[in-house]
Specification:
Radius of gyration: 13 Å
Strand order of the largest sheet: 2-10-9-4-5-6
Distance between the termini: 40 Å
Number of strands: 10
Oligomer: single chain
Mean pLDDT: 97
Low-confidence stretches: none
Structural class: mainly beta
Strand content: over 45%
Order of helices and strands: EEEEEEEEEE
Shape: globular
Amino acid sequence: EVQLVESGGGLVQPGESLRLSCVASGFTFSRVSMQWVRQAPGKGREWVSTIASGGDKTYYADAVKGRFSISRDNAKNTLYLQLNSLMPEDTAMYYCSVGSGMLVGTRGQGTQVTVSS
């Protein structure tokens, strides 16, 4: 069974940081690109970042470039997203998602990030 389990979200103040994790199982994690997407209340889904299967290439939405950092540990089947300098507009449910291959678009249940003073 394919599973993606996100964790690490929470309630933080503007300017603070969080580290999200996504543990994958049921497929060959190291062979696919992975991405983070988010969805704020009342808004559509927004792509945040993508990382190549080997971790050597990363891509970011303009809204998070310079503040967020995506990484992966293929030995642990785990995807990460470091969120720095958080702003209220970063408030959303964050999902990890398979970025390539037959499972493209498969995502987890999400982890909530709320940025508020």
